[in-house]
């Protein structure tokens, strides 16, 4: 059968198409596959290594300075003041005279008592010698001894009466205030002046029920005066009973005052360093919350995987906060912690490199 020209042309075109698509299929199967999935880049976080350090809790107490010993010296006998040797504000030693009263008849009574004692001693010694030779009885010797003892007591009583006319400093300190002048008549118990022990001194304040349980005798403290000066000291007393009106407990910090810079009744505050423990100092911005609302930080763990670590706030510092709950040196995420989750692998950049 003889084909027409148009049929021949159609068969030629069909054959060409079959050959084209067959060759394409063969060569397409020989190509390497290039449809592998492209990997997703890791999220980058900035981290720093933070190690534990010694930390002590602090209790801030506001109060006042107070003399450890402050005494008003009073007359132990009556008489007129004839001298006031100590000047107000002067530093006096133990036994220094503060006020002197007129001795008056007390001196005569002392001389009489001394003479009576001397005579009684001679009488006793004579009676004892005569008793050895048999010229005095034991009864006579005993009577002489009794008379001697009585004379000695009278002499000592007169000496004490004279000594009491001088009011003396009981210990070294500052004669703070004179309360009697020359010519004043003092009865027993009337004041001569006030003496204050210069060193050590106290800084006294009150703390709440919550804070008093933290403080113990001997804890170190630092007092700050209104002038800005600071003085180291130690807790001397922690009250066992609360003030009925304020329900607070008094705390006394003992501090040195060799220079006399402290004065009784000055406004002051002091810090007592209490609980000692290990803590991590971190930036406040590193704190975050997990899905349950627990306060903590996010760390870079093994394999650069994010780990959430709960922490407890202990206190503040100039550079951030102190927290407990972390162990050893940790890699703390300081930037990007709010955009990553527990178990997520991250790319870590150090703070030094991040700038």
Structure description:
- The protein is of the alpha+beta class and 355 residues long.
- Among the domains are: 45-55 and 278-354, conserved putative lor/sdh protein from methanococcus maripaludis s2 fold (Beta Barrel); 103-164, Orthogonal Bundle (Helix Hairpins), CATH 1.10.287.
- It is built from five helices and 22 strands.
- The chain starts with a helix and ends with a helix.
- The model is unreliable at 30-37 (pLDDT under 50).
End-to-end CA span: 89 Å
State the oligomer. Answer: single chain
Q: What is the H-and-E element order?
A: HEEEEEEHHEEEEEHEEEEEEEEEEEH
Unreliable stretches, pLDDT < 50, 5 or more residues?
30-37
Q: What level of helicity do the residues show?
A: 10-25%
CATH topology (fold) name of the domain at 45-55 and 278-354: conserved putative lor/sdh protein from methanococcus maripaludis s2 fold
Strand tally, please?
22
| CATH architectural arrangement of the domain at 45-55 and 278-354 | Beta Barrel
Overall pLDDT confidence: 88
Largest sheet: number of strands, sense, barrel closure: 6 strands, antiparallel, barrel
Broad structural category: alpha+beta
Strand order of the largest sheet: 2-11-14-13-12-15
CATH class of the domain at 45-55 and 278-354: Mainly Beta
What portion of residues belong to β-strands? 35-45%
Q: What's the gyration radius in Å?
A: 48 Å
């Amino acid at each position: 059968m003889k084909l027409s020209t148009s049929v021949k042309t159609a068969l030629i075109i069909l054959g060409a198409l079959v050959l084209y698509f067959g060759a394409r299929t063969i060569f397409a199967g020989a190509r390497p596959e290039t449809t592998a999935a492209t990997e997703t880049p890791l999220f980058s976080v900035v981290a720093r290594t933070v190690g534990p350090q010694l930390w002590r809790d602090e209790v801030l107490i506001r109060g006042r300075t107070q003399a450890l010993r402050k005494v008003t010296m009073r007359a132990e006998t009556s008489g007129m003041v004839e001298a006031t040797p100590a000047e107000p504000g002067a530093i006096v030693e133990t036994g220094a005279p503060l006020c002197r009263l007129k001795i008056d008849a007390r001196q005569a009574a002392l001389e009489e008592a001394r003479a009576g004692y001397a005579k009684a001693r001679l009488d006793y010694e004579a009676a004892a010698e005569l008793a050895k030779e048999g010229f005095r009885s034991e009864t006579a010797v005993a009577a002489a001894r009794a008379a001697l003892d009585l004379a000695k007591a009278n002499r000592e009583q007169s000496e004490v009466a004279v000594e009491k006319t001088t009011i003396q400093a009981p210990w070294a300190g500052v004669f703070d205030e004179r309360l009697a002048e020359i010519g004043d008549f003092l009865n027993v118990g009337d004041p001569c002046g006030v003496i204050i022990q210069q060193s050590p001194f106290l800084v006294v304040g009150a703390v709440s029920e919550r804070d008093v349980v933290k403080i113990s005798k001997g804890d170190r403290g630092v007092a700050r005066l209104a002038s800005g000066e600071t003085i180291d000291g130690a807790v001397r007393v922690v009250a066992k009973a609360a003030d009925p009106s304020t329900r607070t407990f008094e705390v006394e910090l003992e501090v040195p005052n060799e220079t006399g810079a402290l004065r009784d009744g000055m406004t002051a505050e002091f810090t007592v360093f209490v609980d000692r423990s290990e803590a991590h100092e971190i930036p406040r911005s590193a704190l975050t919350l997990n899905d349950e609302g627990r306060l903590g930080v996010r760390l870079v763990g093994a394999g650069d995987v994010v780990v959430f670590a709960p922490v407890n706030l202990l206190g503040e510092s100039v550079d951030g906060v102190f927290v407990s709950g972390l162990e050893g040196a940790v890699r703390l995420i300081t930037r990007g912690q709010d955009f990553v989750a527990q178990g997520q692998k991250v790319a870590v950049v150090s703070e030094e490199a991040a700038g």
